[in-house]
Model the fold of this input.
Amino acid sequence: MTLKISISGIRGIAGQSLTDEVVRNFANAFAEYTDKGKIVIGSDTRLSGEHVKSIVISELCARGCQVIDIGIAPTPTTQIAVRNNKADGGIIITASHNPPEWNGLKFVRQDGIFLNETQAKELISIYEDIQKTAKTPKEETLIGSLCKKDPTALDKHIELVKSSIDVTAIRNKGFKVAIDCCNGAGSVITQKFLKELGCEIIAINTDTKKIPPRGSEPIPQNLSHLCEVVKKFNADIGFAQDPDADRLSIVSDEGVAIGEEYSLALAAMFILSRDRSAGKKVLVTNLSTSRINEDIASGFGAKVIRTKVGEVNVSEKIKETGAVIGGEGNGGIIWPVVGLGRDSIAGIGLILTMLAASGKKLSLIVSGMPKYSMIKDKVELSVSSDPNKILSSIEKLYASEKINKTDGIKIDFSDGWLHIRSSNTEPIIRIIAEGLDIKVTQNRIEEVKRAVRSL
Ligand code: MG
Done:
């Protein structure tokens, strides 16, 4: 069964596991959750997007919600539009980095952050009640009077980012920028944004009507075409997004995909370096993100706070601590001056401001940063396995080390770390390790896998 209902929203194969009924019942549940409030709707470019959106909008309107449809928009644009419109919530129609035949719904609250675990559980329980009664709406839907289109959301997002970066410095440099938007929701806004920054643009995968020719995640193995384009056209930098344009990764001027862990690290380095009072500043990220962030923060006397995995946990901690920057190692940069969600547009603005301010080539900046190897692995569990038991035996295995139990088990060694947690959605133990030496790192992964299998 491919329908995934979790605290980070719902995802499934459109028309198969993600049926019209599931979409309708979730829209109905969100109408109830927001007490028939004002709801902003945005979607990525998936072929099923219009169909799913029409069901969501007609259900919300039938329930008496006021709907603002901002059209195709990056996930962070919709999050910002919820705040700009003083809405009660938002629904984003996207399956993020899942393959094109998938789609899903993500739920945003008033402050532009996704529902947290407690709130998501409440929404899911309303959905389950609705599902039990399984009634199809009979009401006459008055979409015309209750649904407004707002074509200004992309421009407002661009203006917000522009007001927070050094536009003049970027324009003066006349950067040559290659982009790969995965034919996704970033295709239009990214080109418009870069044009307004006076950049020369070389764009690939910006046809929103086509299925993307590469894997959806902006990870190095999916970016060989972008790397070639950067080299061929002598670009200063390449930027890659995922289909809903919350994640950003970077290709250097030498045509090398530097890895998505460096997106947040570079943004953090710039934000902390330009602020004289950086010592009082906080960077927030999750437990599975690279240690480069500690290295960078300590260089400026700043502090890193680690949260459980899940964007909402990072967003809420940034809000709570007044952190100056945060995000995730998967290319998710959260710049609270712009918004509390991962935002590739804010990321591009920050990285270009950094390049303009430093006057250095990106490859040179990156060569001065720490180099770690990160390995991500998993072990599938049998139905009878108890993930909690497994985690506590692993804890015993590393009893003499420094252990953090905020989210599974994180073990910090002097030269790296191991993070072992059970998946929220599948019977899987995820193992992530990072270290200065790739062999040592691989051995640590194998040690944990052996321990899990022996139980
Ligand atoms: Mg995404």
The pocket of magnesium ion is lined by residues 96-97, 242, 244, 246-247 (CB under 6 Å).
